[in-house]
Amino acid sequence: MRDRREATSEDSRLKWATGSSRRLFFALGVAMATWAPMVPYVKGRLHLDASQLGALLLCLGAGALPAMPATALLLRCVTLHTILYCTILASCVLLPVLSIIPSALPCGFVLFLFGASIGSWDVTANAHALELDRCSGTQVMSGFHGLYSLGGLAGAGAMSTLLHLGVSLVICAAMSALSVAVIGISALSNILEKPAQEEEQPGEHLLWLKPSILVIGVLCFIAFMCEGAMLDWSSVFLVGNRSFSRSSSGIGYAVFSVGMALSRLCGEKISLRVMPFTLLLISSTIASIGLFTAVLSLSKVASLIGFLFVGLGLANVVPVLFSIVGRKQKNANSTALSFIITLGYIGILAGPAFIGFLANRITLPVTLGCMAATLLLVAAFSCIAKEDTSTHSRDG
Predict the structure, then answer these.
(1) Are the C-beta atoms of 376 and 248 separated by less than 8 Å?
(2) Which residues contact 2 (CB under 8 A, 6 or more apart)?
(3) 333 located within any domain
(4) For residue 23, what are the domain limits?
């Protein structure tokens, strides 16, 4: 009887913690998506060309990249609750500031701080999700990232709607920040105390040097770079090349988020029915076709449909690549997986800056078309998943 009560109590604790994690990912998605519709306004207010905007966007990645490994080290001595509380508050304070800051240099500094807070929040939220994954013994990560995509949809959709109704940018940003604070901080009361700490296996620190791991890292970089392009450049593309008003330009990222959310929420069921090789091939091809459609068609509707298919395709590329690494090595928190994630985040954070520099020379539509072509490389190298699946089957 006592064991049953303890088991019931543990199940209840995990249930509440899972709900908290869902809210954390949703709020994180809202915070990131709030920035996307603000980009054209910042570009116009500061009178930036594509190259200058790319340099400014680089500040977001410059803040996030050092914050991520620093947070991983900080988690050894500081509680999850403390880090999440500080990063959520910092993100919510910085968002309205980004909407009113008058010049490029201080804007870059604030964007650096915003990137650091978002990066730290992301790492901590994923650490909590990994602990839930370990304690529950089930695959919960895909669902959490689905909530992140839903948050992105909600954030971009709400901002675009309010801006279209004539609400000032600073009030829109403040309202979004308040929502993020309420949702995020309310989730902190039920989180687990600390993430799982797994020991590194002998020789594991060199596993990332294997050619197959390096290739997977590059493919993750491409996928995340395309996702970063949707966040930072979809609005600019719709305003500059499809005659959307700035107030409605956030609909591009919102449509992209719809595709991501739908595909990620169904990702676990799809992966049970489709082989990794097939799923990676189809997903990357769909994303590529969607991006080609968006940049080659002159129709507003066709461009939005293209963004939808980019989201549908990209959503399952990274989970499949992560699962391949997981099968190649049993320790999910190992050096190789950390290497893959780091390359991915370099793509999503630093990639948009590179896009800006390139767009200033060969135009934004051509640059996005080149990205669509790189997605075909992911399809071409999907044989990695096929090879891994066959090896896994023989081992079984």
Answers:
(1) no
(2) none
(3) yes
(4) 10-190
